[in-house]
Amino acid sequence: MIDTKPDEIKQILKEQQTYFATQQTKNISFRLEQLKKLKDGVKKHEQDIVKALALDLNKSELEAYSTEIGILYEEINFTMKRLRNWAKPRKVSTALTHTGSRGYVIHEPYGAVLIIAPWNYPFQLALSPLVGAIAAGNTAVIKPSELTPNVSSLIKKILQEQYTSAYIATVEGGVAASQALLELPFDYIFFTGSVPVGKVVMEAAAKHLTPVTLELGGKSPTIVDEQVNIKLAAKRIVFGKFTNAGQTCIAPDYLLVQKKVKQELIDAMKEAINEFYGDNPLESSRYSKIVNDRHYSRLTRYLNDGRILFGGTRDDGTHRIAPTLLDQVDPNSPVMTEEIFGPIFPVMEYDTLDEAIEFVNSRPKPLALYLFTESKETEAEVTNRISFGGGCINDTLMHIATPYLPFGGVGESGMGSYHGKYSFETFSHAKSVLKQTTRFDFSFRYPSAKNGLKLVKRLLK
Ligand code: NAD
């Protein structure tokens, strides 16, 4: 893929700044119209999107629709229905010290925003933040991932058909294009990707004091307690782990299972894998491939970090690795210290819940956490004592798919959140305005006031 040239990138930002200055992106009817255009563009190219995702990642049509296209429609519909309400200036209460005045908050757009996307859900993760950016009244530049070139060029085509690049533009390319973008004074940066690149983004943003949202990754644990519906847990864990062949930021990374139910859970997971992907997942049209050589060889090395309980087969030609369960892993081995981001699932057992909680807490704060239990006490212990971005009780992945919950990380797994109203707020600055009365004037605050200090002390005690 050819990197967009730095001069061209500079020109795009300049044009977007000029466009933003015309004020038209702030008009609510305009924003709604642009959201509708986004939906129309995606609808028009639905089959092309499915094809591009199959070419880049061998995604099945069901996965393409449920995790990339459908989820975007849901985000657009949800936002369009509520935008007028969200965008209204919000009145706030008045403090006693401010009697006579009124306060309100205006959500104003930042200006020209930059959205950098990864390759694993290359369509949705580029365009879902865009919904928030448009809803909040910004212009936007999208930098899709270079590792999924078919989706990248399709995004460019769809956006070009719907918008002038002075409003919404796509910059294609890899690290060089991304770095050229990061040198510029955007008004907001929304980055989805890995932890190391997240640090590069934040450092670059610091030069211009540009605010950032960082949607990063890491190792998301799945804890399975002894009081559990094993069959259902197994199905939902296998679903979350092997969707997109494990290349999901919130995929269960490793399993911590109470030792009494370990064998039963492993047997049930094997059954679920067979049910979902058949006897030979390497041939299944329902099973994704690994995105490229580098990630494929990185993942194959993990196969040596434990005893293979199930799976472990692979096809170098098609970059596929069968759903694999790994036992007897060393907590200090690469498969347990690096984000796996593939279809390999280390299984570790624990005796007491404390042990499991301490294990998770001894590591960076995860993006997601999944707990399978019927016990309310266990649920309370885990949700209170472990810090994580978001997660599910008795399910996996599904918390990302509802526009009512904020989605984002904490600590090393990221900062900020989005989806639904949270996206609108992420891409808006909350501007505070105090409107003072001119009908009267409290003079005790002025340096010349008699008894000023006494009054201030009485009011602010
Ligand atoms: P990545 O960090 O390698 O790349 C992300 C984007 O940054 C790409 O567009 C890429 O071109 C650009 N980039 C890469 N190196 C760069 C550099 N040195 N300087 C500037 N830009 C650079 O991530 P990836 O491999 O595309 O995606 C996988 C990672 O993303 C995983 O860690 C995963 O957990 C995370 N992820 C997080 C979420 C989330 O919502 N939190 C979603 C999907 C993926």
From TrEMBL:
Residues 5-433 form the Aldehyde dehydrogenase domain. Gene3D superfamilies: Aldehyde Dehydrogenase, Chain A, domain 1, Aldehyde Dehydrogenase, Chain A, domain 2. The active site is at residue 215. SUPFAM superfamilies: ALDH-like. It comes from the Bacteria. Pfam families: Aldedh. Belongs to the aldehyde dehydrogenase family. This is Aldehyde dehydrogenase. It comes from Metabacillus sediminis.
